[in-house]
Amino acid sequence: MAPRRHDPDRRDRIIDATLQVIAEGGVAGTSHRRVAERAEVPLGSMTYHFASMDELLREAFTRFALRISERFAARIEAASDIEGLVEAVVHIVHDDLAAGQDELVLTLELYTLAARQPVFRQITHDWMRRSREALGRLVDARKTHEVDALIEGLFIHAHLDPVPRSRAATRAAVRRLLSL
């Protein structure tokens, strides 16, 4: 029997490769074979580390959502007052939630899975909870829900509308919601 190759980072590489494959071809175009090729691991490693494609997708989207949540929280934590929050939200909408086409695709793929399958909905619920916790440092509980929902809607419009929303329009909408 051949000795096993020591590869402690293999599982992480598979998860990262999964996100890359999803960004390129969507969830529907993601397979164990494509992920294994991208991660440069034997196909058998896929089932060794993940019992199913759903488990792999859950792990990948959880990692993605945590990464975006951390970026979101850091941006909000840098705001020291409501005016700082307004500017943070503008950056979140226009820069942070989709720091490139891959992240835009990953976010929308996760939303689609969450709409269909409760296990993925939990990932989005956890993501929203973390967002509201960060926002709650500067606004009350009712406003955290409203600002979080506004961010999601503005993000979609800013990145999918043929005439993207300007930063000034986003700033004005956030200021109106916060009654500034």
From TrEMBL:
Residues 8-68 form the HTH tetR-type domain. Coiled coil: none annotated. GO terms for molecular function: DNA binding. PROSITE patterns: HTH_TETR_2 (PS50977). Residues 31-50 bind DNA. SUPFAM superfamilies: Homeodomain-like, Tetracyclin repressor-like, C-terminal domain. It comes from the Bacteria. Keywords: DNA-binding, Transcription, Transcription regulation. PANTHER family: HTH-TYPE TRANSCRIPTIONAL REPRESSOR NEMR, TRANSCRIPTIONAL REGULATORY PROTEIN. This is Transcriptional regulator, TetR family.
